[in-house]
Amino acid sequence: MPSASTISRCASSDNASVCRGFCRFCWTGIHWVNPCRTIGATMVNPGSESRAVLERRADAAIIAAVGYFVLAMIAIQLTSTGYDIATIWPADAIILTLLLREPRSNWGWVLAAGWAANLAANTVARGWSPVLVTYGVINMGQTLLAAWLVLRRTPQADVFATNRAIWRFVFYAGGVAVLIAALIGATVTALTFGEPFLISVGNWYFSNALGLLVLTPFLCALFDGSYVRWLRIANRREMWSALGGYALLLVTTAAVFAQSFVPLLFLPMCLVIYLSFRLGRLGTKLGVMLVAFTGLGATLVGQGPVAGMPVSAQLQTLFFQLYLGALLLTCLPVASLVTSRRHMAIRLAEREEALRQVLESAVTACLGFDSSGQCKWATGPVQALLGISAEEMIGRSCETVSLQIHDLMEELGKAFGSQDFGPQGATRLIEFSPMRRPALVLEGTIGLLRQGRAHSGWVVTLRDVTERRALDLALIGRSETDRLTGVCARESFLVHLDRAMEDVGRPISLALVDLDSFHTINDKHGLVVGDAALVEVARRIKRNARDTDVVARLGADQFALLLRCDILTARSICERIAEAVRQSPVCRAGDVAVLSSVSCGVVQLRSGMTPEDAQGIADTALKDMKQSGRNGVRVAA
Asked: What are residue 601's DSSP bridge partners?
């Protein structure tokens, strides 16, 4: 046996022999054993690669030859007189199975081995005849055409995965390919033995089509290891249940075909459908096999409802073939649908479990509400965010979370179905503080669940944004405040000015204040002293302004005041500020006291002014004050 490090999966592409190498075929179908590769290897031995290719081709050819010979001999001995066509020809199924699994570079080996086995089996059972060579070619051509047509639109791994793939297999393998081969085979038979053409076409078609349709699905499942995998993952109860189902099917089929006075052919079909629902495609494939060979054995010995029909043997054979075909075509699509839904349910359960684990470890709480607004499920840190556990939340109204959420849910429900309700309209955002956790700020996303044209409920996700909101407020505060002086920043002051211009019905004045000779302080004493002077001047301006006044720093040494008073009061306040600045040093540079003064330009806001007009007039007054000697207040005319 190969070591674990040599186990790998074989590529199934046409040029896999060049790109990835081939592997030896394993009868269990679970692994492809590649003796020329190891885990972590970076170099591939070309000699080992070639040997692996030859070994796989030899394995496929041996399986094709031995399997075909055995199945052909059984079919000839049990279902044929030795000279006519067998009732069911299962040997071609093993060739088709190998073609559906092997890379195309190995098809020639499989077909050559199958042709040789066909010739050997017919020669041993029926005696030598040159026409047997032609029959073997027709059989191999039939399976080759079927495999090529099926794989032309279906990947190798998905031949029986979906209903569409199954019907494609039935149409090509059980219809087109076999019909073409039947026409050619019947022509050869008519020319060689003088047999009626239409009868030969019917016998060939039903015999070969039935063999391919009944046995190929089972062999594919056997070779790819589906049954072995099921045995490994199934528990004891499932195994006993499957064993009991197959035993009941076998006993029932034997009882139905052991008598001929009561037509009970529907019973095996019912049991196969039952196995299809319990086991999926695997149950159908093996179940049809059991019914086919049990019923065929009974019919060949002259027992059962088919053998008791008052018609010729050929019509009995045709009826049995149609019965098996109907059984397969009825149960296999049902099994495919059941298997697909079972796999979908498994994937859904896995994703639901993964989502549950993610939500439980996440900082986001998730709640589901039905169309009446009652909570149906809750997960995540519900207790930490809402002050109520997830279990207690179930069954409660959405108003338990927030009255705002209830209103938004009603808004979404009313908007649903309107013309402007698109994908972006299916959610709403909300920010609130829960009633039981008032210190928290939560951000909620409300999503509408839709089923066709109706809505089935809502999903609400909650997360704590308390720290983020506090940080946002801090950043907003920083952006509105001058970092050096602590007074209002320019951008924020302009917002206040815009709002004041909208309310000029009350007296409001604007004052621009400029620190005189500030550049001299910077040049003589340095930037640090200059900054200290600005801080002190700002402090004196704020101390002499009123609480209702807005003080701001507009630029390097320029301040502004928005005063809710008339021009005379504003002038008085500015004169008080100018006096407070000039009366004592604004800072010290070592032993040197730094003295300074301010110049002010004041204007009263009037209707029709724009913020730019007001600033321009106040700036003109300020410049006039500076040209007149600084250290004072000038009111705009």
From this structure: 512, 634
